[in-house]
TrEMBL record:
Species the sequence originates in: Ciona savignyi
GO cellular component: cytoplasm
Catalytic site: C85 (nucleophile), Y221 (proton donor/acceptor)
Residues forming coiled coils: none
Pfam family, one: GST_N_2
Name listed for the protein in its UniProt record: GST C-terminal domain-containing protein
Amino acids binding glutathione: W118, R152, I153, T154, V155, E170, S171
Residue numbers marked as site, Lowers pKa of active site Cys: Y279, Y322
Top-level taxon: Eukaryota
InterPro entries (UniProt xref): Glutathione-S-Trfase_C-like, Glutathione-S-Trfase_C_sf, Glutathione_S-Trfase, Glutathione_S-Trfase_N, GST_Omega-like_C, GST_Omega/GSH, Thioredoxin-like_sf
A GO MF term: glutathione transferase activity
Domain GST C-terminal residue range list: 198-332
Gene3D superfamilies: 1.20.1050.10, Glutaredoxin
Length: 355
């Protein structure tokens, strides 16, 4: 009897110690989150009085162009990116599609973003030291070139190594620069002739962008960062209404603007490829998965199997960033296993819509 009681007491003490350790870990992560809010402005804090997430505009909006302050020159420009970030991912895809790998260098930041935001960490796969300032955090790069800057520290960043200035940190503008303004730096005529924002399709592309960005690209964040039921309900309804719209569109044509791959496809892909692994669970976008949409799923596989899309997709960085960095959503930083999805499976886009 005494032995049984002693065992029970031992188990009870073990359970208490386990709970204390778990609580300590939680407090550490909450403390880290509080520190982050005082040093680094997280996207999750950008909410209106009704609890709806409102993304702030990018701060640096200059352009690389002939005759301007920032002319296109081989080796002059550098990209700071996160492999986890869908906005930065766009720029890596566009850079590779246009064959600009040797003309524009890049550095990948750590997937883990806590106290001081994006950091440089050569101990993480695919990451390296900051080659320009030897900075520890990306915020230092922003403050080096703009000492009074108090906005959000975001990726991608297109940086001018010659003038030591940030040119642009708006992904939609960077990919358009890569599309046309760097053509003289493309390795051959084949890459120079590629145009992902052709004049005859600009109206269609812009029309698609105008409803995909707020409802899908940014819509998943509006779901995940919502701080009221009303804000979440509105965001998630808009998200799936417009995913249904994409599915219907792709049942009639191969790409979003018709028969040609355009920037609209680049912009949508970086959200779709993250959806089932991250947004479905982490951001509570769990009405349906992309794999449940036959046309969209086949379309995504076709894009992924193009070298510029698949080779720039790093699911390890993607899943760990969202699940370990967003302490307000996942306080313990537990990385869940995720779905078993094969992007290399055959697709039917070529047979369904031959070019």
């Amino acid at each position: 009897m005494l032995l049984c009681n002693a065992v029970r007491i031992g188990i009870h003490k073990s359970e208490i110690l386990g709970k204390i350790n778990l609580l300590s870990l939680n407090l550490c992560r909450i403390n880290s989150s509080l520190k982050m809010s005082s040093k680094h402005q997280s996207a999750s804090s950008d909410v209106d009085p009704k609890g709806a997430f409102v993304r702030k505009e990018s701060s640096f909006r200059n352009e690389v162009k002939e005759g301007g302050e920032f002319p296109p020159e081989n080796g002059r420009y550098h990209l700071y990116v996160s492999l986890a970030c869908p906005w930065a991912h766009r720029t890596l895809i566009a850079r590779k599609l246009k064959g600009l790998e040797n003309a524009i260098s890049y550095t990948v930041v750590d997937f883990l973003m806590l106290d001081n935001g994006w950091r440089f960490n050569e101990n993480v796969e695919h990451c390296e030291k900051d080659p320009i300032f030897d900075a520890q955090y990306l915020r230092e790069v922003y403050l080096k070139v703009s000492p009074g800057y108090n906005g959000r520290i975001t990726v991608p960043v297109l940086f001018d190594k010659k003038l030591k200035k940030i040119v642009n940190n708006e992904s939609s503008e960077i990919i358009r620069m890569f599309n046309k303004n760097f053509n003289k730096l493309c390795p051959d005529d084949e890459h120079r002739m590629l145009d992902f924002y052709p004049e005859h399709l600009q109206g269609k592309i812009q029309e698609v962008n105008d409803w995909i960005y707020p409802n899908i690209n940014n819509g998943v964040y509006r779901c995940g960062f919502a701080r009221s039921q009303e804000a979440y309900d509105q965001a998630v309804q808009g998200l799936f209404t417009h995913l249904d719209k994409v599915e219907d569109l792709l049942s009639k044509q191969r790409y979003l603007a018709g028969t040609q791959l355009t920037e609209a496809d680049i912009r949508l892909f970086t959200t779709l490829v993250r959806f089932d692994h991250v947004y479905h669970g982490h951001f509570k976008c769990n009405k349906k998965r992309i794999i449940d949409y036959p046309n969209m799923w086949s379309y995504m596989k076709e894009l992924y199997q193009m070298a510029a899309f698949g080779s720039t997709t790093d699911m390890n960085h993607i899943t760990k960033h969202y699940q370990m960095s967003h302490t307000s959503i996942n306080p313990f930083g537990i990385v869940y296993i995720g779905p078993d999805i094969n992007f290399e499976e055959p697709h039917d886009r070529a047979s369904k819509f031959p070019l």
